[in-house]
Design goal:
Blueprint (H helix, E strand, L loop, with lengths): L2 H32 L4 E7 L16 E7 L18 E2 L14 E2 L18 E8 L13 E8 L8 E4 L2 E4 L2 H4 L7 E15 L10 H6 L6 E8 L1 H13 L1 E6 L21 H6 L2
């Protein structure tokens, strides 16, 4: 046997020994790190679970692993039987632990392709908006938004108007032919967007059937929101008789009360508006 062949064989043996030693060291380090910690069994996703997968099918997607108790979620699934009759609300990715809140009743799982779930008790309402009224058309399903309602002046046909929730009498001389102010105010906070249909002019993903289903009139967008019934009434009223404007509202935006804006106070500082209430 030539020296070259012997050298290669020795190199391979040394590499194998080094690999084994490294693996053994890593395992021993893990054991040392976990020494004295309580270990618990959890279900871990071993391959992607599609949204809508039933609990009865989960055994093919998960494995049982030991993890330190301190990294176990409070709502960790202890038994797959607990999920009987339910389905995955969203796609579950490899490596994540199974938690109870990821599963819903099939009747509540209005699952779309992007995994948006309509919360129980909500109505879905669609409004047609020009792109400049919906952050330039950049909304996507799963976003949350604030909704503004604006109204042009309207005639006061009765001797009573409602101001800040209270009815105020208007003298006959004033109410005859009088009008309200232009107004704008936020009427909905953190409303869930469940679908966005874009204009046929700017929507093209190469799939003619998908494009046809997602078309809206040119220069317009259809935005669908999941909201409470009472909020749906206010949104529909504004769409019918006023103007709707939508702003992207992330979870860290505080939901402080706002003041109705008119031409009489639009130039006031926000602090003075708050103090005047």
């Amino acid at each position: 046997m030539s020296r070259k062949v012997i050298g290669i064989a020795v190199a391979i043996v040394l590499a194998a020994v080094g690999t084994v030693a490294l693996v053994s060291y890593v395992r021993s380090a893990e054991v040392r790190a976990q020494a004295g910690e309580e270990l618990v069994e959890v279900y871990v996703v071993s391959r992607t679970v599609p949204a809508g997968t039933s609990a009865a099918e989960l055994e093919d997607y998960v494995t049982v692993e030991l993890v330190p108790a301190k990294v176990q979620p409070a709502n960790s699934v202890q038994s797959l039987q607990r999920l009987e009759g339910r389905v995955a609300a969203v796609e579950l990715v490899t490596g994540e632990q199974l938690v109870d809140t990821r599963f819903v009743e099939p009747a509540d799982a209005a699952t779309r392709q992007i995994g948006v779930i309509v919360p129980p008790g909500k109505l879905e309402v669609t409004v047609e908006l020009e792109q400049q009224r919906v952050i330039g058309g950049l909304l996507t399903p799963g976003d949350t938004v604030a909704v503004f309602a604006s109204f042009e002046p309207f005639e006061v046909s009765t001797g009573v108007v409602e101001i800040d929730g209270e009815e105020v009498a208007i003298p006959d001389a004033v109410s005859n032919g009088a009008s309200t102010s232009n107004t704008t105010q936020i009427i909905l906070r953190k409303a869930l967007v469940t679908a966005v249909q874009e204009s046929a002019n700017n929507f093209d993903n190469g799939d003619e059937e998908a494009d046809r289903l997602n078309e809206a009139p040119a220069d317009a967008m259809y935005v669908t929101l999941a909201i409470d019934p009472a909020d749906a009434e206010r949104l529909v009223f504004t769409q019918e008789f006023g103007l709707v404007y939508v702003a992207l509202e992330r979870s860290d935006v505080p939901e402080n009360p706002t003041e109705q804006i008119t031409r009489g106070n639009v130039y006031d500082e926000p602090d003075s508006l708050t103090a005047s209430r």
